[in-house]
Prior knowledge:
The chain is an alpha+beta fold. Helices cover about 55% and strands about 10% of the residues. It has seven helices and four strands. The protein has helices spanning about 5-30, 40-60, 65-85, 90-95, 110-115, 120-130, 170; strands at about 100-105, 105-110, 140-145, 150-155. It is elongated, with a radius of gyration of 22 Å. It starts with 5 loop residues before the first helix and ends with a helix. The mean pLDDT is about 85.
Amino acid sequence: MLFNGWSGVVRIIIMALTVYPALIFMLRISGKRTLSKMNMFDMVITVAIGSVVASVMLSNKMTIVEGLTGLGMLIVLQFAVTWLEVRSEGFTSLIKGEPQLLLYHGQYMEKALKKERVKKDEVRQAIRADGLASVEETEAVVLETDGTFSVIKHKHQNGQSSLKDVEGWERNKA
């Protein structure tokens, strides 16, 4: 159970020495977006790539060609989805969703908090993590499409708002 001989260990070493450079090569030609954490789909692809790499390296039932084909297909699919996402607003909203305004000028957006299943203390935690001492110092808190919180401090100059594409901002704008 602890050791079945050197053949399994040698196989893993050979697979790692083969799969790792191939993965690096595929990721380099596919672009930075392949392993980004920009939205839910990107995260799923990242997990799937990790799963395929682990299966190739540790499973005796998967050949290196099958594993590299799986990796290649995931990367091609990711490239196709991101290509479509850049070119189609409808496809983007289907895949990505919209950022959600959770707090605006000290007022919690109750419907948005319930819709996104976020508690007020999580919003305050995001404000603290951004180095602000009070909710009043915050112009807005946004739940981004990747699940992170963006804290926007009160603006001090005129210009285009970073909240322009955030769901709920226009109706709360003063």
